[in-house]
Amino acid sequence: MNNKEEIVLGYLEPSENIQNTEDELPSYANGLPQFLECEDKFESIKCSQCGNPMKMLLQIYAPLNNKHASFREIYVFLCLNEQCSKHNCSIRVFRMQSSQKPQLFQSKNKDYIISPQSKQFIIDTEIISAKENNNEFQVAEELLPTNLEDEDKDVDLKNVKFDNENKIYENYLKNTEEKEDIEELDGLEKDQQNNIDGCFLIYQHFLTQYQNHVVRYCFDSLSKPLWFSDKKQPQVESKCPYCKKNKIFEFQINNSILTYFPELYNLEWGALYIYSCPQSCAVGGQILIEETVYAHSDEQEFISPNLKVDPDTKLVTIKQDSNKSNKQKQQIQQQQQIQQKIDEKDDEDDW
């Protein structure tokens, strides 16, 4: 699952019983956690702000080639307390691992269930190759608004794998920084052009092309996140407290997951980005090991306590934007434009 030549996409599929599946160790959402050790051996997952039990958003089976982590589970927890959502403690991510095939212990704490009235979901997976990923970034790049003078400038994507997005983002930002005005873009007013978010367009393109997948997984030192927005992208400097190596991006959870559960409708993050120890260190005597998570949005951002970011990045900012509805309309228009261009391109290919 950590092959750098591929990306694993995860989709939520309804399931009557997540234990009665073909997968011996399934990945799922809206269920009781299945731990690799009896939960009597460790404390329950609680919000460090309010002290209440947290809700498990999803559990992902993510084994590695390392012998000590050949069986490995990742758990993502949320606190739904409205006041806590403004603090760093509202999201926590843990891993649990074993060198031998483990016995699973289903939690008895029903407070962990995020939405008792909703269905349970298995996370079905699709693998896309580096070539497919590159092709989609090339398509997405063509959808970005650029200056007419720069139309003949192309990004060289040869021999580029999962850092394509960085090159595209850099090219987009360079173009917009060099020129104060962006030439007219069909379907957008001039006052909207100044607020166009290139990263959001690329992000939205991938969610459209891959049917609103909720998870994008690629655990490799070369992999980069699919950022939700141009704004407030952190320079991650989080280190594993045990081996002292820099943590690397492992996977992200897209905001498409928020639409599945009514309890999450009030959350406004665009995506969650999880960074993990590259060796998935085995820590003697410690069963649950906490990793780093960053919540990204153009409206708010908050990070886990063990993540350092660029000094210019504000850690906790919840701002009420009077133009929020206008921004949402712009995003909808941008999404419609993307879909229209994709449809036009498909029609041309059919001919």
UniProtKB/TrEMBL annotation:
Query: Where does the Programmed cell death protein 2 C-terminal domain start and stop, copy by copy?
Result: 198-293
Composition bias of kind Low complexity appears in 320-340
Q: Name one GO cellular component term.
A: cytoplasm
* Protein name listed in UniProt: Programmed cell death protein 2 C-terminal domain-containing protein
Show the segment(s) annotated as Disordered.
320-351
Q: Which organism is it from?
A: Paramecium sonneborni
PANTHER family from the xrefs? Answer: PCDC2 PROGRAMMED CELL DEATH PROTEIN 2 -RELATED, PROGRAMMED CELL DEATH PROTEIN 2
Its lineage opens with:
Eukaryota, Sar, Alveolata, Ciliophora, Intramacronucleata
Q: Which InterPro entries match?
A: PDCD2_C
